[in-house]
Design brief:
mainly alpha; two-stranded antiparallel ribbon; 34 helices; 2 strands
Amino acid sequence: MKSETKLAENKYDLIVAVEDACIKFNHFDEYEHLAEIDNGASETLFSKLEREISSDNISDYYVELIVSGLEMVHRCSSKFVKVSVRSVGSDRALQLLCEVVEKYLLFPHYHAHAPTIICFVAKLFNHFTKASSIKQKMTTDDRIITLMARVLQSDMEDSVKIEAIKLLSNLVYCCSIAIHADGIIDSLVESVHSPNTSIKEASVRTFLNLAISMENRQILGWRNDTISVLLTCLSIENSDATRIYAIGALGNISACDENKLRLVNYGNGELVKILLFLINSERNMNFQKDSIGVLANLTNADTSCLICQYPDFMNTLVNLATYGDHEDTQTSALKVLRRLSSFIDSSMSCHSHLLLAFLEALASKKSTIQVVAALKDQSSKPKNRNSMAQFPGIMDALGDASLEIEDDGKSNAIKALLFISYLNDGSTYKVSETVLRALTAAAGLTKTKDILTRFAAIKTIKKLASREENRKMMEADGALIDALKWTAKKMTTIVTITDSLTELLSASPDDMLGTLMEHIGEKKERAVSDEVLLALADATLLMITPGSIADQ
């Protein structure tokens, strides 16, 4: 290459020499490209381009040949791209290519060479991004990003814009600096409206890549044009790729705390309404799952009650969680319900909607364990207990659930009954036959692993027995009395919870369960007499049948 160009004595000879070189370079053999780079092809072409672009008599065709040759030479792996760019100097190479794009953007789109030159430079830039160190340098260069944004806003043909948008998508991935470049968001919004599917897909993908950066999410979320254009991309008329990129971008944007309330209120609830429509009508399960994920991201203390007011919102979640045909969709819907539960309490008007949703989910028998866990979390908050105790069907549903599931699920159901038994004013609820049957079964468990569930059940019975009408019902329940007497007699290995037996027996369920779990977690177990359970069972029996004492 060097010898050929040195022998050329005029522009015509130079052009012929580069034409011949381009014919040789036009292949995809990586090792041949390495040999070309080692022979100085890249350095020579950059030198020729540098000289030509600064001359007073530029040949556009010659510039086109040079940049096409450079693009061909760099059709190689990241290792060889790095070698080439370093041999030229990264600052020098990037600055020179920017000057080329800047110059030819001034020409109209029908210029004979300008679109092709810009297209080759964009392709060359894309080759550069294969080398991570060079890509990192490019992401901090506002000039490159701004120029590609200008290409998108120009009248250049679609093939040029596709290369420009590919480059932007590569550069903005996880980059918070790129979003501040002049015109980038405006150009992307404009490109999303392109009738060319490839441009639209690449533009939405670029929004997705921008939204990966935490710093970018708030900026994107506060631009109405961005949210609007992403929403239009969710419609079924768009390609699957466009829709997946758009829902992914919205998912990332909605994960930003500063955006949640604004997005829920956007367009008088337009985003939430569209998501609910998509969840109910979508046949693509992955897309449906992602739509549910956006809803989950939108929920927090400020938005949960607002979202619950939308018609069919709760029904949609319950139907998906209980009757959905796909496990992933069920799990995603349950996560939204659990997340809502963590933000909603009895002081909010939507609390009853949440409890009804949980009740309906329990009735389906498909997601009992997850729903019981959510109800246990709800009941752990003292302010929720009165409303839960008074809500029709909740207590019996917990009782039935404890009889149908095992291990942690059963334990959570009994814990919920225990928590709710400690109402805010110190009183307790009126027990039903279903709840009493569940507590009796739990109190009679025999396995060591069920120690916490047994203890919680007897503690609940003791608290419920403080209400006279409950005591009369318990006194007539032979199975309950037998379970308590059996516990009072049974020698067992238990967890030492506290040094004070009196403290344990009188502790609130919050303190008692917390202490018990702490000791179990630390494996502080020792074999002792049945002092704790015996004393608790005796105290409970004495409350129910004051005239008798359990057999010792």
